[in-house]
Amino acid sequence: MTTMLRDVPVTETINDDGQTIWPLVQHDLRNEFGEDTYKSWISKLDCKGCTSASVDFIVPTRFIRDWVLTHFEKKIIKAWQKHNGTVKKINITIAKAKKASATNPEVNGHAMVAEQSDGVDDNYVQKLDKRFTFDTFVAGPSNEFAYAAARAVSETKKVQPGSNPLFLYGGVGLGKTHLMHATAWHIKETNPSRKVVYISAEKFMYQFVKALRTNDIMRFKEQYRSVDVLMVDDIQFICGKDSTQEEFFHTLNALIDNNRQVVISGDRSPSDLQNMEERIKSRLGWGLVADIHNTTYELRLGILQSKVERVGIVVPNQVLEFLASKITSNVRELEGALNKVIAHTSLTRQEITLANTQDILRDLLRSNEKNITIDEVQKKVAERYNLKVSDMYSSKRSRTVARPRQVAMYLAKQLTIYSLAEIGKKFGGKDHTTVMHAIKKVEVLLKTDREFSEDVRLLMKVLQC
Ligand code: ADP
Ligand code: MG
Fold first, then answer.
1. How many whole angstroms separate alpha carbon 447 and alpha carbon 386?
2. Cβ contacts of 273 within 8 Å, gap of 6 or more
3. In percent, how much of the chain has pLDDT > 70?
4. Which of the two residues, 443 and 94, has the higher pLDDT score?
5. Cβ pair 225, 248 in contact under 8 A
């Protein structure tokens, strides 16, 4: 016995039951993944303890365990390491089956069902967020096409084949879910007899696998094929899941053939979806494909202004401008930063000023700052276009050099904290109007040239990783 005890490495000693760190990690993961993913998967993890090397969780089913391990393992470890850098591993075990589990609302996913289920079984739909309407959506150059497309779909009584399916795509936190919910709300309001169902692809898959297990597949099919409007959010989640893809494809075809509207969102264009069957990609691209780009400064400012007006809190413009210029990654983070400032100042009964905003967001801003430098932008853009880094600050005017340089300036403005003048300086001493001109040029091309816009999106992604 004693030898066994001595054999236990020191790092394996339980040093915390996880109860202090887990809530912090959950908070970070919720921000990172968004509410739906968080609720579907992360919230199902019950933290049972941790050592300095690993964390133990319990989940209700094998399916959840496998899914979490395949999709979120690394991210959970990374989030945990922020609080305890020595953790290298997570263990997930399955809870012993409880007799009551079949009626346990958490397990069945009832926790997120809609009140307005339109005659469709509660398990097959998801709640719409009351805040996500067209009224609260701010349109700008980066999202106006997607916005117009969603509005058109929500206002048209008769389904237009050219807009079916409507495929919305763009990076995380840029408003895809917001637009889908807004479309659903609008249809429900103006045409209450139409059956609208919104569901995340994750939940679609979850329900499908459950239906297979419980021999309920006919019911599953009936539920989704009896709707007038089907919205499936974050389609990338069923990439690589062959049987779910198959079922999704048949549902899609059945609905479209019957002139029912389908709205899909994804994190990339249909043709770029990896591990997705060709025929599905092609079918997804048949209708209307609308992309949402990264926000511009003006849009970010507009969103902040609209939000503070709605909640009726006075925030100095200077603070909003500061946030809009510093938090450029996505709208979710931008809103998160504003909420943090509002919550913090109201708790401590301080007025909101630029100084305390900077103070409250110090960590967030620092991590944004150290992430990307102008040098990195120049290097990656030069690599992509097979140029030398020195071409980035040269004054060569040939298109093959000038265009990538404009892209680099655009990305530098979007992704770093530097001002136009500072960026100009880093590009061989150009003045701020040259940088501004470059940004405008790129913005026009993003709207008109699909290939170019894909290129810029990819570069942006690579830099943000
Ligand atoms: P996505 O589904 O693309 O990841 P969401 O639709 O969840 O992003 O948007 C993230 C947050 O940002 C939501 O709170 C949403 O209301 C807000 N948001 C995004 N774009 C806009 C916009 N153009 N106007 C107002 N709010 C927006
Ligand atoms: Mg979303």
1. 24
2. 235, 236, 239, 266, 281, 284
3. 89
4. 443
5. no
- Spacing, Cα 315 to ligand 1 middle (Å): 20
Q: Does domain 297-367 bear CATH number 3.30.365.10?
A: no
Name which residue leads in pLDDT, 233 or 415: 233
pLDDT for res 239:
81
Q: At what angle do helices 242-257 and 201-213 cross, to 10 degrees?
A: 110
Other CB atoms within 10 Å distance of the CB of residue 414: 22
Task: Give CA–CA dist 44/94, Å, rounded.
Answer: 11
> SS3 breakdown of the chain: % helix, strand, coil, rounded to 5?
60, 10, 30
Q: Does the Cβ of 335 fall within 6 Å of ligand 1? A: yes
Q: Where are the CATH 1.10.8.60 domain residues in the chain?
A: 297-367
Sorted by sequence, the CB contacts under 8 Å of residue 157 that are 6+ apart come out as 191
Judge if the beta carbon of residue 174 lies within 6 A of ligand 1. yes
- Delimiting residues of CATH 1.10.1750.10 domain(s) in the chain: 374-464
Confidence of residue 415 (pLDDT cuts 50, 70, 90): confident
Residue with tokens 């709300």: 185
Ligand 1 contacts CB of residue 34 (under 6 A): yes
Residue ranges, CATH 3.40.50.300, the chain: 122-292
Determine the Cα–Cα distance for residues 323 and 461; give it in Å rounded to an integer: 21
> What does DSSP assign to residue 385?
T
**Mean predicted confidence (pLDDT) in 208-235:** 92
Nearest Cα residue to 204 out of 171, 167, 235, 169? 235
Kindly report the CATH number that applies to the domain delimited by 374-464: 1.10.1750.10
Q: Whose CA is nearest to atom 5 of ligand 1?
A: 175
Backbone phi and psi for residue 46, each to the nearest 5 degrees, phi listed first:
-110, 115
State pLDDT tens for residues 172-190. 999 999 999 999 999 999 9
In terms of CATH architecture, what is 5-94? 2-Layer Sandwich (3.30)
CB-proximal residues (5 Å) to ion ligand 2: 176-177
Q: Which atom of ligand 1 is nearest to the CA of 138?
A: 24
| CA–centroid distance, residue 292 to ligand 1 (Å) | 11
**Mean local confidence (pLDDT), 39-68:** 83
Contact between 381 and 407 (Cβ < 8 Å): yes
Domain spanning 122-292: CATH 3.40.50.970: no
Q: Give every CB contact of residue 25 below 8 A, 6+ residues apart in sequence.
A: 76, 79, 80, 82, 83
Ligand 1 binding pocket includes 177 (Cβ within 6 Å): yes
Contacts of 252 (CB under 8 A, 6+ apart): 165, 262, 280, 283, 284
Q: Are 463 and 411 in contact (CB under 8 A)?
A: yes
Region 278-291: what's the mean pLDDT? 93
